[in-house]
Amino acid sequence: MTMPNPPFQGVPHSPVPKKKSRLGLVLGIAGGVLALCCGGGIVAALTVDTGKKADTGKKAAAPAAVSTYKQPGDPCALGDLKLLGPRVGEGKGESTQETGDLPLTGCDYFLAADDGAQEVKAFAAADDKTAARYEQAWKLYPNMTGFSGEKVGGCGAQAFFTKRLSYGDKRIEAQLVCSQDNLYVEVRFNAGGNEPWDAAAMRGNLVAFANAMIAATPKA
Membrane-spanning residues where (predicted)? Predict the structure, then answer.
């Protein structure tokens, strides 16, 4: 799904790249994720480093995840924006979908904050593709130009956090991915502002937000 960008004044826009495939991606940072400049304007997007050779070696199939969770009916009912900290704005979310070989259903929030516009995308998928989604995201996100990634604890059975700061740290683009049994959770945060962002604090806030989503997902 492609959401129309809300109007923001005073910041130039870059053309949004066309969607290619779910793997190339989409997890909707390259296909629709909006990076927000310091003044609050939304600009495109993220560039994937394609200079690395693909791994063509055969790998053993991952064990099937325990079917603990079932797909939530309303993805926008899972998240609590207050967990993202006092600097994050307010706004209502709308259901969104990303298609492909590993589709995702989630909630897209456009937020109005005191120092600019922000966007949060939160996805939850409960099926037999959790391991494949996690592996795909781990290969993609830390390799995007300018991003750094790290494994984190305290969010499901395994999790990682990636981020890119720019404009004197006044613009942040961050993703958190967690998996627990057959549940895959991914949260993306993009914002500008007048003051630098604390990436470590946002990492903790995203972990809290994702854990709330996991706790609110219905059990199978």
Answer: 23-48
